[in-house]
User: What shape does this take?
Amino acid sequence: MTNDIHLMDKNYISPALAIISDAVIIVGSTGVLIWFNVWIALAMIVTSAFILIIPKLFGKKLSSTRGHYSQALSELTMRLKDIFLGYEIIKSYYMDKFTIKKFQLINKEVEDTNFKALETISRSSALASYLSIMTQAVSIGLGGYFVIKGQLSIGALFAIVQLGESLGEPIMMIIDKINVLKSMTEIKNHLVEFMDIPDIEATRHKQLSRVKEDITLENVNFAYEEDKNVLNDLSITFEKNKKYAIVGSSGSGKSTLLKLILDEYMPQEGKVMIDHQSVSEVTRQSLYEQVGIIQQNVYLFDTSLKENITLGRTLKAEVLEESLKQSGVAEFATSMQLDLDAPLGENGNKLSGGQKQRIAIARALVQKKPILLLDEYTSSLDQKIASEIENIVLKLEDVTIISVTHKLLPNILKQYDEIIVMEKGSIREKGSFEDLMKNQSAFYNLYYAEGITDCEERDENIEAM
Ligand SMILES: Nc1ncnc2c1ncn2[C@@H]1O[C@H](COP(=O)(O)OP(=O)(O)OP(=O)(O)O)[C@@H](O)[C@H]1O
Ligand SMILES: [Mg+2]
Assistant: This one.
């Protein structure tokens, strides 16, 4: 889009406006020519009319060559982005040669497609120049004839020749510009498609008020791609202020479930509701005021610690202080002598994973959202810090927590009101840690498959129940 918008600015908006001034010159010159000599004027108009067929001749080719160029340019941008983001891997796995080769291929493609596009434009503009010179030749020839016959003065001939230039020139320029405009057809249609995407927020008028009851999924069927169901007839209720853990093997649909609650996707069948209102019917703003998410990768803006927590809101000093304390940010900030107003650097690269995660929690705390969705938010942390952070979050009152986790730590899992085990897009089992261990079914198997295979530890765990 960035490339296409730049191309549109240069090759559509500017030429389209310049056509107006060319048109004014053409109309003016034609008027004066007719006043001097109708026959010469007519002959010149007929000759220059030939120029008008040029856009017809070249239009399609111009549009497709420019389209190919735009496509190649967008691939080049994507490759560059890929190279910059994957720079560490490229270097540490000696991918240099391979990466350069791939880059050169797409770079060559950009060069070739641009050459083809410019070649087509040059051909059509050469033909337009030729026809414009023909128009001037006609004016000189016919003008000379009328001078010899004594029907035109030398002065008028000079004027006509001059006018011929100011008629031929702008006609040629207009054709050039029409060609350039035509070359943008594919790109313009592509951009218009984006502009036609409706603004979802404008179609929603209902507000979700402060959550009073529960989050309910009712017979939800969902697929990202046709015929590949990710969630199958899933029904579940998350009661207000309770803490839920969602566990299950990779790809079982845990993150997808959270995405549906956030209305990032709509289910093909069934309903996702908060307090009996479908999340797809309320405004996004009112939904996001109620529901927050913390993920494994925390994004930190290149600004101060304080702004990274308040996210631009004005907060009472006590609220900020309390959240800093609760989340454990205060602790590390003091020991690092990190001032609240000190910049954190690009994506907080001066901080460790655990410190970033604490900032994410502080963020959620100050917003005082009644529902917190957590997606493997402690999986990049070591067990000690993960447990500390989980303990902070699980002690939060007045917050409904739905936490997707792979870390099956008994002392943490016991604090959840309910553990939900997902399998292939359905709920396989649910209950408290103790109940599920006693059942010796899906959760039990998952629990021991996750590496806690030490027999003594297993016995200790069972005894501890
Ligand atoms: N954007 C997407 N487009 C197409 N398929 C997707 C998309 N996101 C996820 N999937 C597919 O949906 C299924 C469920 O994915 P999901 O991310 O919900 O799994 P998960 O249970 O969170 O797994 P993990 O524990 O590995 O995070 C997977 O088979 C995945 O390939
Ligand atoms: Mg996931």
